[in-house]
Write a structure and sequence with these properties.
Helix content: over 70%
Mean pLDDT: 82
Structural class: mainly alpha
Radius of gyration: 22 Å
Oligomer: single chain
Largest sheet: none
Strand content: under 5%
Distance between the termini: 90 Å
Length: 131
């Protein structure tokens, strides 16, 4: 009699419970929110939408981490031209079909430039110790 209606309501309630963390993650993506919304509108399946929300949430933390690396490079001013050069080269010669190619280029360029900055610091420290 009323069992099928209860199953539908319980099913919908369960879907809301599953979606709640993904909605919260989506709202916490800040500057990536417009990109997330565009992606969600394009994806037909709920599972894909949830995975994109989780991915954008993770990318916010990666953005903060790599932005901190770039800030270190900007403050030191030693490897800023290296970072800009790497970024331009990676974007210019990057793969055409890569999703979020500029984000990937930013991450790679920041990592390369910071690695060279660390090597510069180690080398200069080594040079000072030897003298």
């Amino acid at each position: 009699r009323g069992d099928s209606e209860h199953k539908i309501i319980v099913g919908e309630f369960w879907e809301v419970l599953i979606d709640t963390p993904y909605v919260l993650m989506g709202l916490l993506t800040f500057w990536r929110l417009p990109s997330l919304i565009m992606t969600i509108y394009r994806e037909p399946s709920v599972r894909e939408r949830r995975s994109w929300a989780a991915l954008h949430f993770l990318l916010v933390f990666l953005d903060v981490f790599f932005a901190t690396l770039v800030l270190i490079e900007i403050v030191t001013l030693i490897r800023l031209p290296t970072f800009v050069g790497y970024y331009r080269d990676i974007v210019k010669h990057g793969k055409g079909e890569v999703i979020m190619a500029k984000t990937e280029a930013f991450y790679k360029a920041a990592g390369f430039a910071l690695w060279q900055l660390v090597l510069d610091i180690i080398y200069s420290w080594f040079f000072v110790v030897i003298l």
